[in-house]
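Input record, target 12 of the design panel.
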């Protein structure tokens, strides 16, 4: 009992672990150490934390504070912390770390983590760092960097465990014990079984390997490969395979089908988070921003999309100006017009969000596209009928005009039907022409619902009220 009590005093309680994700006291200590220029205390503060927690603490600082910490105690920023940091925070630190220090840290990393660090370096620093790396490791890094940024080749870990299919369990285990540690991944879940040409033909889970008798052939234990990726495979497609088949890892093969590396689920979790974040931000017309970004950097990333939105707003205003004489005669139209456009925009955004998510998850295929389009059209039609029935009487009692009630009810019905169709057809079209639906769909949807909403409403008013 005494030992249990002692252990509970050394670490955070269960309740603290569940609710405290960033140690604010550690953030304060780091800031104090930086202000006091106390390199020893700063190093001790970071070393006392788990690397992931230390990264969280550093990410609460401004860019200037992060760089000041790296200058003050560069040795505290080893492989574990550099790997755990976000790209933005790591880039800030890499700007001030000596190339020798970065090269030493890369030597302690697995190949996939090393690639992430090297790709965050500018061209001049990258060349100098790579010149200090072991030649064999440098060649592997340069090979990985030759692949597209969002490809499986960038995620690929070149350390893996492979065994011939004629080996027994005992031979595989003895091999794992005999080979140097730096040739094996730090963590792995499967042994890949290969044929004489080094093509992967199956996998043996470590749990299966450890439970089997030493004399059991691997060919008898192995499971068939459920997914294989190439270095050129898009990381989002690789993530889809992991999600679909619940993979702990996946082999990566070259053009001749030979095993060259593997991707593990921890990297895929990062990809899923990254892709999800990109989609959410893109639909809002913004880019990822670090907590350390300045006002100028944030404005620089957001202003271009605001310019695009301004242009679409001008188009909608131009449509309204076509009916300025009618609006001057019937002021009620100026009051009600925004309702039609707003309801259409909101309805379209609902369908757009579902469509973008379904496209990203590969749920929409040629087999079901027609059904989904008809479903969204049906949803738009029914919603249009519902809100036309609601808004028509409201407009009648508000302005005591049957004509205005008919106009807004009809416009509401038509615009919500168009919004439903636009919400699904725009992202599908974007995907077909090779544009990310999450990036461009929102602008087109807003333009469609505003322009159609104002034109239909004011056009019907011209026909009915004049």
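The sequence produced for target 12 reads:
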């Amino acid at each position: 009992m005494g030992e249990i009590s002692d252990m509970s005093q050394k670490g955070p309680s269960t309740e603290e672990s569940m609710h405290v994700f960033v140690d604010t006291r550690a953030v304060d200590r780091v800031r104090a150490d930086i202000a006091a220029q106390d390199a020893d205390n700063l190093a001790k503060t970071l070393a006392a934390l788990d690397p992931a927690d230390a990264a969280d603490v550093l990410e609460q600082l401004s860019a200037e504070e992060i760089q000041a910490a790296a200058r003050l105690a560069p040795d505290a920023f080893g492989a574990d912390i550099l790997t755990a940091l976000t790209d933005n925070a790591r880039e800030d630190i890499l700007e001030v770390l000596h190339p020798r220090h970065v090269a030493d840290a890369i030597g302690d990393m697995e190949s996939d983590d090393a690639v992430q660090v090297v790709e965050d370096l500018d061209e001049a620093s990258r060349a100098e760092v790579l010149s200090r790396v072991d030649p064999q490791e440098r060649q592997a890094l340069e090979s990985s960097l030759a692949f597209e940024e969002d490809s499986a080749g960038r995620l690929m870990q070149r350390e893996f465990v492979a065994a011939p299919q004629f080996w027994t369990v005992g031979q595989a285990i003895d091999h794992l014990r005999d080979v140097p540690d730096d040739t094996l991944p730090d963590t792995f879940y499967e042994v890949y079984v290969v044929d004489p040409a080094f093509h992967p033909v199956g996998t043996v889970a470590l749990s299966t390997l450890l439970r089997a008798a030493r004399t059991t052939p691997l060919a008898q234990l192995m499971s068939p490969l459920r997914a294989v990726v190439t270095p050129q495979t898009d990381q989002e497609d690789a993530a889809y395979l992991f999600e679909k088949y619940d993979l702990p890892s996946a082999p990566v093969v070259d053009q001749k089908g030979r095993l060259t590396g593997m991707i593990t689920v921890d990297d895929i979790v990062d990809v899923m988070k990254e892709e999800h974040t990109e989609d959410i931000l893109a639909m809002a017309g913004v880019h990822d921003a670090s907590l350390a970004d300045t006002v100028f950097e944030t404005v620089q990333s957001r202003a271009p999309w605001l310019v695009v939105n301004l242009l679409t707003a001008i188009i909608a205003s131009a449509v309204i100006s076509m009916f300025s004489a009618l609006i001057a005669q019937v002021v009620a139209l100026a009051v009600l017009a925004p309702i039609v456009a707003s309801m259409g925009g909101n309805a379209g955004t609902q369908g757009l969000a579902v469509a973008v998510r379904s496209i990203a998850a590969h749920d929409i295929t040629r087999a079901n596209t027609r059904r989904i389009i008809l479903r969204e059209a049906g949803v738009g039609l029914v919603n249009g009928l519902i809100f036309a029935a609601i808004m028509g009487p409201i407009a009648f009692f508000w302005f005591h005009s049957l004509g205005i009630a008919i106009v807004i009810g009809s416009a509401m019905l038509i615009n919500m039907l168009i919004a439903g169709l636009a919400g699904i057809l725009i992202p599908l079209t974007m995907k077909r022409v090779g544009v990310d639906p999450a990036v461009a769909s929102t602008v087109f949807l807003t333009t469609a619902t505003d322009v159609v909403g104002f034109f239909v409403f004011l056009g019907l008013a011209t026909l009915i009220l004049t």
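The longest helix spans residues 369-399.
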